[in-house]
Write a structure and sequence with these properties.
alpha+beta; Alpha-D-Glucose-1,6-Bisphosphate, Chain A, domain 4; 5-stranded antiparallel sheet; 5 strands; globular
Length: 109
């Protein structure tokens, strides 16, 4: 098993926007998608989110890290992991939540 378990979902994005703009857009998009911001660090450009228990899962945690990549764009890495590692359908639901978050972020870019 590598850095991420098979139940996690990872997405890497890049935007031609200032990192501070992207950071604010990601935080706003997360709230619009129903995530609760557990912590946000504007110095390191990281945001940790939580999604509550639903009919399908015991919830999930989402870790977002941003940075300027060599070509000058802002890179965004989103990693979603289920709260409970034994959930059978968690990955599919988490992927849907991440897709919804990415779509909302894209609307602000």
């Amino acid at each position: 098993m590598g850095l991420f378990s098979d139940k996690s979902c990872r997405v890497d994005l890049a935007y031609c926007r200032d990192i501070n703009y992207v950071y604010n857009a990601v935080g706003y998009a997360a709230q619009m998608c129903g995530f609760k911001i557990e912590s946000a660090d504007s110095r390191n450009y990281t945001i940790n989110l939580r999604k509550s228990i639903s009919l399908f899962t015991w919830g999930e945690r989402v870790y977002i890290a941003m940075g300027v990549i060599p070509d000058g764009r802002t890179g965004v890495t989103i990693v979603s992991q289920p709260n409970l590692g034994t959930e059978i359908g968690a990955r599919k639901q988490n992927q849907k939540n991440v897709e919804m978050l990415v779509n909302m972020i894209n609307q602000y870019m």
